[in-house]
């Protein structure tokens, strides 16, 4: 996914302390646009003779590849904008990874990920694949199901835990936090007997509403508030969505690149902690054959009663000598467990829908079981809207 934001990743890679010789190959569907970005990024590595940067079609890029990072978006910003907007007519927030918008994104993206995964499996079967494609759980599952050794990475649990550890009661220092969840739907809780004071501090600090803390006895990631509590934003038809805002910045940066002007100030307008806090450290650990500990999206470990077989969950994970280990999901309250179970089953139905030529029946099942508050009488029309939104930007995932 050779977008303008790749410039930030390339710059971070040049700052990585390693004496290894690196070849960075950029891949995207628009060769003219990619060449502009590649030329710009080549300037960033000009003073690092140990780094070579090129662009190529996927099949050529995969030959002898050791690490493959996937950052594509099927349909681009237009598809994301649709996913953020169409759910609002059903009284719920729109998002590219969760709810109705996430469902539509999954339907159009999973077939592409399976296609890309097939290319990886046949050309570079030993390649370590790092997935950053939304919706992260189902797209990582798509890669795993076609035989690719993939992991999904997201920085949000790491950065959220860092903030929450700062509010732990002094007596709880060193006890840490429990974590369980799906991508963007994770939950933190303190170790007993400090859970009550932790929740009080989280409410006081604005990390969770008092109602949610009382109901679930845990602190969710920020997407719970954004998607499940706040509902759709109040805006007019002409207000920019997040997708439109990001596209405007990207277009500006690209025009600067074409004019051979410095674009770093534009790139810096967007915070991208998933690059510097998670992706680059993991790449460094893979290249240097060292360890990394954090959070990752991986196939569910045994003994998880709330998640369907074959699903991908998010949890504490370790990378050692190129091998990933996912820790068991921490025990949570009955209501958190029920919420996660409903979300995981809905995600499972959507994954099945993405593989079906007639996806609507599975989409309806996903909406019925999802914690999203879709009115009963609107579920069929919501399912049709999901399928229609997915179909507007569907393609076969071929590369070149």
Task: Describe, in plain words, how this protein is organized in 3D.
The structure is a single chain. With 400 residues, this protein is α/β, with parallel strands linked by helices. The protein has 16 helices and eleven strands. It has helices at 6-14, 31-44, 58-62, 76-85, 99-123, 136-145, 156-165, 195-204, 210-216, 222-229, 242-258, 264-267, 273-288, 334-354, 360-369, 379-392; strands at 22-26, 51-55, 67-70, 128-131, 150-152, 177-182, 185-190, 219-220, 292-299, 312-320, 323-326. It has a three-stranded parallel sheet, with helices on both faces. It has a three-stranded antiparallel sheet with strand order 6-7-8, with helices on both faces. Strand 4, helix 6 (136-145) and strand 5 form a beta-alpha-beta unit. The radius of gyration is 21 Å and the shape is globular. The model is unreliable at 396-400 (pLDDT under 50).
Distance between the termini: 12 Å
Q: What is the count of β-strands?
A: 11
Reading the helices and strands in chain order gives HEHEHEHHEHEHEEHHEHHHHEEEHHH
Radius of gyration: 21 Å
Which structural class do you get from the secondary structure elements?
alpha/beta
- Helix count equals 16
Q: Average pLDDT across residues?
A: 91
Shape: globular
Bin the strand percentage: 5-15%
Unreliable stretches, pLDDT < 50, 5 or more residues?
A: 396-400
Strand order of the largest sheet: 3-4-5
Helix content: 40-55%
Largest pleated sheet? 3 strands, parallel
């Amino acid at each position: 996914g050779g977008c303008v934001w790749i410039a930030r990743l390339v710059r971070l890679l040049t700052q990585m302390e390693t004496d290894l010789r690196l070849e960075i190959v950029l891949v995207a569907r628009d060769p003219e646009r990619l060449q502009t970005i590649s030329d710009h990024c080549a300037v960033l590595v000009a003073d690092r003779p140990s780094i070579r940067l090129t662009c190529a079609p996927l099949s050529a890029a995969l030959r002898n590849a050791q690490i493959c990072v996937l950052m594509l978006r099927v349909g681009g910003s237009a598809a994301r904008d649709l996913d953020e907007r169409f759910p609002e007519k059903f009284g719920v927030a729109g998002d590219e990874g969760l709810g109705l918008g996430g469902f539509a994104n999954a339907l159009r993206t999973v077939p592409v990920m399976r296609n890309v995964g097939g290319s990886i499996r046949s050309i570079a079967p030993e390649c370590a694949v790092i997935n950053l494609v939304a919706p992260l759980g189902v797209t990582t599952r798509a890669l795993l199901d076609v035989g690719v050794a993939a992991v999904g990475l997201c920085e949000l649990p790491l950065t959220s835990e860092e903030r929450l550890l700062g509010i732990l009661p002094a007596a709880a220092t060193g006890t840490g936090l429990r974590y369980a969840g799906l991508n963007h739907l994770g939950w933190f809780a303190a170790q007993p007997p400090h859970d009550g004071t932790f929740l009080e501090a989280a409410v006081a600090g604005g990390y969770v509403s008092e109602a949610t803390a009382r109901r679930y006895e845990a602190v969710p990631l920020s997407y719970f508030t954004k998607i499940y509590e706040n509902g759709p934003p109040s805006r007019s038809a002409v207000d920019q969505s997040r997708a439109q805002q990001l596209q405007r910045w990207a277009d500006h940066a690209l025009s600067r690149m074409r004019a051979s002007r410095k674009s770093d100030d534009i790139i810096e307008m967007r915070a991208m902690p998933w690059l510097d806090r998670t992706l680059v450290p993991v790449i460094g650990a893979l290249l240097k054959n060292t360890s990394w500990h954090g959070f990752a999206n991986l196939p569910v470990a045994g003994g998880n009663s709330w998640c369907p077989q074959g699903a991908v969950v998010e949890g504490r994970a370790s990378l050692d000598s190129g091998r990933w280990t996912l820790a068991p999901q921490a025990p949570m309250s009955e209501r958190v467990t029920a919420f996660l179970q409903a979300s995981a089953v809905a995600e499972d139905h959507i994954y099945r829908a993405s593989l079906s030529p007639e996806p609507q029946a599975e989409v309806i099942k996903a909406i019925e079981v999802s914690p999203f508050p879709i009115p009963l009488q609107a579920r069929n029309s919501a399912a049709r809207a999901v399928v229609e939104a997915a179909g507007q930007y569907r393609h076969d995932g071929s590369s070149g």
